[in-house]
Amino acid sequence: MRWSMVIDLDKCVACQGCSIACRFENNTPVVNPSEALKGRAIRWNDVFPLPINPTEETGEYPHVQTRYLTRPCMHCDNPPCVKVCPVQATYKDEEGLVRQNYARCIGCRFCTVACPYGVRYFNWYAPEWAGALHATPVSAPEYANPDRIEGGGDLEGPAVRPLGVVEKCTFCIHRMQKARARAEAEGRDFRADEYVPACVETCTGKARFFGDLDDLHSTVSMLAVSPRAFRLLEDVGTHPKVIYLREG
Amino acid sequence: MLKVDPRDKTKLIDPLFAAPGARFWLAALALSAVIAWGGTMYARQFIFGLGETGMNRPTYWGVYMVNFIFFIGISHAGTLISAILRVTGAEWRRPITRVAEAITTFALIVGTLQIIIDMGRPDRLLFVILHGRLQSPILWDVISVTAYFLGSITYLYLPLIPDVAILRDNAPETAPGWQRKLYTLLALGWRGNREQWARLEKAISIMAVFIIPVAVSVHTIISWILATTVQPGWHSSIFGPYFVVGAIFSGIGALFIAMTAVRKVLGLEQYIAGRQYRNLGLLFVTMNAIWAYFTYAEHLSIAAGQQVEEFPVLAAKLWGEFAPGFWLMVALMAAAFWALAVPRLLPAAAERVPVFRPRYALASAGAAAVVLFLLVTPQPTSVHAALTDAQIRTLGWALLALFVVGAGLGVSPWLKARPVTASVIAAVCVVIGMWLERWNIIVPTLTHPRLIPYSLYQPTLTEISLTAASLALFGLMFLVFFKLFPAVSIWEVAEGRVIEEAQSKIVIPAPEPSETRRLRQRRLKL
Amino acid sequence: MRPAASYHPQNKHEDAILSPLRRITFADRWLWAVLLGVMGLGAYAYSRQWIFGLGVTGLNRPVYWGVYITNFVFFIGLAHSGTFISAILRLAGAEWRKPLTRAAEAITLFSLPFGVASILIDMGRPDRALNVILFGRFQSPLLWDFTAVSLYLFSSVVFFYLSLLPDIALCRDRLTEAPLWQQRMYDLFALGWRGHPEQFRRLERVLDGMAIFMTMLVVTVHTVVSWVFGMTIQPGWHTALIGPFFLLGAIFSGTAAVVIALAILRRVYHMEEVLTVNLFNSLRKLLIVFTLGWLYMIVAEHLTIFYGSLPDEMEVFWQKFTGEYAPIFWLMVLTVFVLPLIIFVFLGKSRIGWMVTASVLVNVGMWLERYVVIVPTETRPRLVSTLMEGIGNYQPTWVEGAITAALFAGMVLLYAVFTRLFPVVPVWETAEAVEAEVPPARPRRRVFGAGRPR
């Protein structure tokens, strides 16, 4: 089983619903405006214009040539972040997910520096959440997602992060665990289409697809061979598992 | 009861037992104040998080990482001087080995501290050992720095044993009890008989040979932390040797500063003499040239490749927001080279030529500053029009070059007459320049990533305070160490004197009369 | 009318050094004949290439550079032997090098032209060689190469000639039984050298200055040669380390070649007194350092590539480590590093036979190393499919083999003839080096200067 995501850029309207769904699903902390200006905002799924650093080809207003890209973690098959973690806080599991263990992370930020896609984020201060009933941030989310992956020195997923650790998109692994548990309780096999991450579920334009790349009949496998399919930074050797379909 | 030469006793041993004077207390107090300030800033950082620094996404590594590489680089001073020169039989190293080895040990301590300061979760430091992943370059780094640290401490301690035994035996009556006990403890019962000497020599020789590859591996592995990523500007195979050369280079600079300080404060002109400065100066100039070669090779590769992600990093350094830092580094390295190389090549008669006088150097430097100001800063419109003309700009840069060379020439005889000052000037240039070099390697790459918008990085007060506190800590450790232990290795210097005396008694059979013997002046006396 | 004989510093080995010049043996003539024969074969091979074109070689698309370019880099690398011994060691004040300088510089002098010849042989239109000067573009690394190597060739000739000058005068004065043409040659080239103290002083000054210049030149030359590869964007070539890597390799193979040359000279010309075992021991230490340095560079290069995992680079990486070029690559590692290190460290001390074996292995390995840097990158390009028959395969033909053999034969021939015409150990430089007899187990301890006010 190899989890993969396909994003059809033709259908994406850059509404950022995916980013917002992700942040609530995963208890992502907020930062205040001055911190955000310093580039410390945390967005596991980020929506941004491409090319991200303008060149001559981008053009000047009003003849600008850009497009919008929505980007989760690539969950690479050859992840440059896993190689460099000195304490195995980030690791690749048997299903191809690149996971992050908040309980193990020592905050050295080698993985954040090694990732060429910039999908990793760091808790510069103790995480805070926007209080629904207060104007100021609070130290625990009031309406939190209680799911977490925990146990045996592990703390992953939507678990509330401590200060000084790295976090990133997990393909909503907690949802997968719940679906697996349900299947087990019902005494049947777990099927790959039983769970989708929050961003895939929310997407306004139904542009995101999720599934098992090892299953040749799954949606993602069939879309992956489309002539419109491409992956980001293919020449860097990371073998990312998020596949984009370019605008038709 | 170990005897000691009376000259050595006055100069090297007595100051250790004298009560520390006002200067000492003042210095210790000042350094401690800076360290305490750094401590409070660190406490804030520990409580509130790394948000107190200027780091952000994508600049996840900043001043702390630069400091780390800088301090570990400086630690290569000790290995070079003590080990390599010992293995190649260079006698002139004897008076400076203690200072060099001390620099190594303290720089390693302060350097490792930088990493702990940089960690997001320093309370989880042990995870590196408990759950270590061998595939990670950080883990190789931990292993090699630990090995180097243990090796350096041993290499500092072994030659210290006979000296401490001398101190133990020659302590005056008024010496405090704790100090006597300290020396007795550290001397490990050294008696100075033949057996012990043989064993000590053997141990030191083995350590010297063993520690050289360890030192080379340390800075190579540190460079591989950067080179094994795919980030533009970092993923370069030259980093290994490049960093080692830079480390030895900055190490010699630090050694110059430290040995001059020790020489000045303790009055050790008889020991740390012109010969040490001259030979270290030659090594310095060679390392400078090799460093320049590596820097050129690195940057030319990127410039010629012109690959889409690499080139913005280079452009940022050459003419972008990192240009002032980059060109300042180049200027400092060139100045360091000039300060040590040109006075050597200048004939004595040059003093009579007017251009070789300090006042003309000052005038030239002033003119150069004016021209630089005109060229680099934005000017009011009346001047602006003239300055944008390409030919006038080229003329401007040519004039600048001329003035700078003039300033350099003018100051050369002054430098020639003061080799120690020249060495210190060169050393300070190098130390600052190498810090800038580390900055120029780390930050431009991080601020020009592929898929994150280019960003700026501005260090905050926390980072600056902690840098200052680290330097102060280094200084304080140095101060305290040389208040307790002799700054010059007494037995090595004594051994050197014995060898010199023995050599002067060897009769070399008179060579056949040859006119050329008298005529051939060895220029490069070592 | 012969001018009055000039002054020559006394050297007790003078007779031993001059004895090879006094006669040419039967074995010599045989050797020269064989070498000329090999060169003839090479000439024939080249004539075929000239007439039919480079198609007679094994080169193809995408392997456009092969054995000839390997030879070029190898010969230029070999040339660094002389400069290293004469210039760099001179600046470092290593007195023990003196007996070696002439032999080493002769290697430089006689390998450089063959390096240049390799390039001309490799050109598709050698008749248009002058276009490089007439229409040269300075942006091209080949032009830097051309400039640097020309300068190096010229400087080496001058440096060599200058250090030879007093000995030519010596030959003129001592070799009175030589044939007339030979005596006239000595006369001409001696330039009226008198041996005045003033002349010696001037000569030393010039050589000191040239030593600095040659050191900078040697660093430049081989770096620039490597930049012919390094300044492209081809995977495996485009690495910043290639400059220092090639430089170290050049000095390494050059020093090993000096060992080979010295051993042969010592045996054939019975110069055991002059070329002592201690020289070989000093060279042995240098070679150990170079071997370890070479390993360091290879590891740095390949570890960086491996961790980066960039697909284009990894293709070339696997070609070398496990692919078609794996046998050559691992043979190279064996002959450049593993075997020589074992031999140098454990077997080489004072044993010239083993030293020569290791040095031969080093040079064979360094030729393979150049081959392994150049060819695998070309066999795994980014956008040329290597699935088709013949694409990406490179099999050198007899033409390339014959020409390579001819180049080596030419170098050896020139060297052999040289040793019969000029003294191969500098008589005037070793004149006052009486201490060459005292076996320095370690470099001489210099007088310690503590206490001398400065």
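qc> The domain at 25-434 of chain C is CATH 1.20.1630.10 (Formate dehydrogenase/DMSO reductase fold).
qc> done
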